[in-house]
Design goal:
heterodimer, A: about 200 residues, alpha/beta, seven-stranded mixed beta sheet, B: about 475 residues, five-stranded parallel beta sheet, 16 helices, globular, binds iron/sulfur cluster, Acoase/IPM_deHydtase_lsu_aba (chain B), Aconitase_4Fe-4S_BS (chain B)
């Protein structure tokens, strides 16, 4: 996983709540068996509208998505994260993310930043007033900055440490092999087994 | 202090706990399907890893499988590649797989419980958000992303922070004609699509205790639609009876030991939930959605709400966009909404009881002109049971289509889809824009409402049918 320390880029203000993962990447895209090539599927239905914010010339090359509440609800598809990353987004800001989406993002190095809705509103206003406004998401300082505006955000220390260092979860877990084996040895015999009967 | 059901199951699965780190949780059962696993197997391969516990892993094909002509090669080449990839991965890594055509094939969340693999007090994961279904057994069951699928395949564990707990207490008794589906739609409308976020929901109270296992699964299934990763119901005699004798249920002395353990899986009287919601079952009625998220629902007797009536700006905007997408106007009576398609199936309502209740309404009646009705059993076992009971005949005699098992029209990934602008009454769980096909419009309903809607051609419940004298039920 790529490490995330700090990122600066232009933003896409997405004034929609409940952008579910079916909107982020529609089901028919899920048939791919790779982790890349999802950029054209990102918000596919909404992008049919030439006025949709992502289609506007001034938003091309933007890397920070600033979304309405309840971003990433619905299906657990990690493809939603890959689609955002394949398109070029490095970070998503919202007042509320769906749990599974948030977990998936952090595992792929896409930083999800939770800010109060007033702060999201401010960033919307700033980046709508001037699309060239650069937004900085600084994980070291746990701060979002845009022009004169600054907001602090929280992220649990462990997730932050893993992101800052780009650490892979599986290797970390495998360091605890002894604990896993000990646990396995103590499981009761009545627990289910999928071995065909 | 006492512990909640969720906390008990959680504590029993902690492999390692360290200050400042998420808990490392052991996973008892890992379910796989074709959509969210290919990149996970790829990751294992790249790192030279194997599947740690083949005996706790099982795969089935469901999302891409067609429900017609299943003996022919799959027409869509991309779907075919995905199924072939799963087959190749399972063969390479040694994972048990139930492919299309196999008697145990079906929607992953129907198959697990049916085999007796889903048991009280277990941790169950799958790369699918509706894994919450399995919580009906008092299991801690949640959907995971593909990176986590790979993590579980490699380690049989997941690092996770303990969730908060929310009690959803349903007092009283559900009125006649009101089902588990109506109850969960009403709960989601009440707490909102983000209301359960960060929580494990525990459904409890007299109305929940009375429900069958299948009805409990319908409720837990849609926990995710309230933003909760998991929903649970404490196991009781109903649970034990359902499990007894199933293929993978414990046998003999192990059964006794298991039941003894399962009986301890109740929230202690002095346990404290982080949040609590109380619902009066008696106040509920058949419930349908009018919008594009599962929280946008109302009793069938109501009208389409006026977006202007919402105080919250983002909810108002969401309602405006939903009405525009759904082609509805504020104030329109929900009962006046005409549909083109009725879908009975999915992991929410594709089990035998669901088919029975839809069939009992269709029996001796006809699907309205201009309406197509698809009935899709959740698994091959459910299909066989339905055929044994003659339900397939009831459906076909009424003009409905009886299909092979799979996810079908629950999501637009296989040939069963809505055309742009088409409107459905669907027993599935998501009414998102385009969920059932590009431009399709979905109203979420119970199997009973689906059947009555098929007969009348507009959103309706069985009570609306009471005076059709021409009916000649064959009696199923
Ligand atoms: S039936 Fe629908 S919700 Fe259930 S697993 Fe299949 S696609 Fe997902």
């Amino acid at each position: 996983m790529e490490a995330f320390t700090t990122h600066t880029g232009r933003a896409v203000p997405l004034r929609r709540s409940n952008a579910d993962t079916d909107q982020i990447i529609p089901a028919h895209w899920l048939k791919k068996v790779t982790r890349d090539g999802f950029e054209d599927g990102l918000f596919e239905a909404w992008r049919k509208d030439p006025e949709f914010i992502l289609n506007r010339p001034e938003r091309q090359g933007a890397t920070v998505l600033v979304a309405g509440p309840d971003f990433g609800t619905g299906s657990s598809r990690e493809h939603a994260v890959w689609a955002l990353q394949n398109y070029g987004f490095k970070t998503v800001i919202s007042s509320r993310f769906a749990d599974i989406f948030r977990g998936n993002s952090l595992k792929n190095g896409l930083l999800t930043v939770v800010l109060p809705q007033e702060d999201v509103d401010r960033i919307w206003e700033l980046t709508e007033a001037d699309p060239a406004t650069e937004v900085t998401v600084d994980l070291v300082a746990r701060e979002v900055r845009a022009g004169a505006f600054t907001a602090a955000f929280e992220l649990d220390e462990n997730a932050r440490w893993r992101l800052l260092n780009g650490l892979d979860d599986i290797s970390l877990t495998l360091q605890n092999e002894a604990d896993i084996s000990t646990y396995e040895a103590s499981r009761p015999a009545h627990k289910p087994s999928t071995i065909q009967v | 202090m006492g512990r909640t059901l969720a906390e008990k199951v959680w504590d029993d699965h902690v492999v390692r706990r360290a200050e400042g780190e998420p808990d490392l949780l052991f996973i008892d059962l890992h379910l796989l399907h074709e959509v969210t696993s290919p990149q996970a197997f790829d990751g294992l391969r790249k790192n030279g890893r194997r599947v740690r516990r083949l005996d706790l892993t099982i795969a089935t094909e469901d999302h891409n499988t067609p429900t017609l002509d299943i003996d022919k090669p799959i027409a869509d080449p991309v779907s075919r590649v995905q199924l072939e990839t799963l087959r190749a991965n399972c063969a390479e890594f040694g994972v048990r797989l139930h492919s299309l055509g196999d008697v145990e094939q079906g929607v992953v969340h129907v198959v697990g419980p049916q085999l007796g693999l889903t048991q009280p007090g277990t941790t169950v994961v799958c790369g699918d958000s509706h894994t919450s279904t399995h919580g009906a057994f008092g299991a801690l069951a949640f959907g995971i992303g593909t990176s986590q699928v790979e993590h579980v395949l490699a380690t049989q564990t997941l690092p996770m922070a303990p969730p908060k707990t929310m009690a959803i207490t349903v007092d009283g008794e559900l009125p006649d004609g009101v089902t588990a589906k109506d109850l969960i739609l009403a709960i989601i409308a009440k707490i909102g699509t983000g209301g359960g976020q960060g929580y494990v929901l525990e459904y409890r109270g007299p109305a929940v205790e009375k429900l069958s296992m299948e009805a409990r699964m319908t409720i837990c299934n849609m926990s995710i639609e309230a933003g909760a990763r998991a929903g649970m119901i404490a196991p009781d005699e109903t649970t034990f009876e359902y499990l007894r004798g199933r293929d993978h249920a414990p046998k003999g002395e192990e059964w006794d030991a298991a039941v003894e353990y399962w009986k301890t899986l109740r929230t202690d009287d002095d346990a404290v939930f982080d949040a609590e919601v109380v619902i009066d079952a008696a106040s509920l009625a058949p419930f349908v959605t009018w919008g594009t998220n599962p929280g946008q629902g109302a009793p069938l007797s109501a009208s389409v709400p006026d977006p202007a009536s919402y105080d919250d700006a983002s909810e108002r905007l969401a309602a405006e966009k939903a009405l525009e997408y759904m082609g509805l106007t504020a104030g329109q009576r929900l009962r006046d909404i005409k549909v083109d398609t009725v879908f009975v199936g999915s992991c929410t309502n594709g089990r035998i009881e669901d088919l029975r209740s839809a069939a009992s309404i269709m029996d001796g009646r006809k699907v309205a002109d201009g309406v197509r009705m698809l009935v899709v059993p959740g698994s091959v076992r459910v299909a066989l049971q339905a055929v044994a009971e003659g339900l397939d005949k009831v459906f076909t005699a009424s003009g409905a289509e009886w299909r092979h098992a799979g996810c079908s029209m629950c999501l637009g990934m296989n040939p069963d889809q809505l055309a742009p602008g088409e409107r459905s009454a669907s027993t599935s769980n998501r009414n998102f824009e385009g969920r059932q096909g590009k431009g399709g419009r979905t109203h979420l309903v119970s199997p009973q409402v689906a059947a009555a809607t098929a007969v009348l051609g507009h959103l309706a419940c069985p009570a609306d049918l009471s005076d059709d004298a021409a009916r000649t039920p064959a009696g199923v």
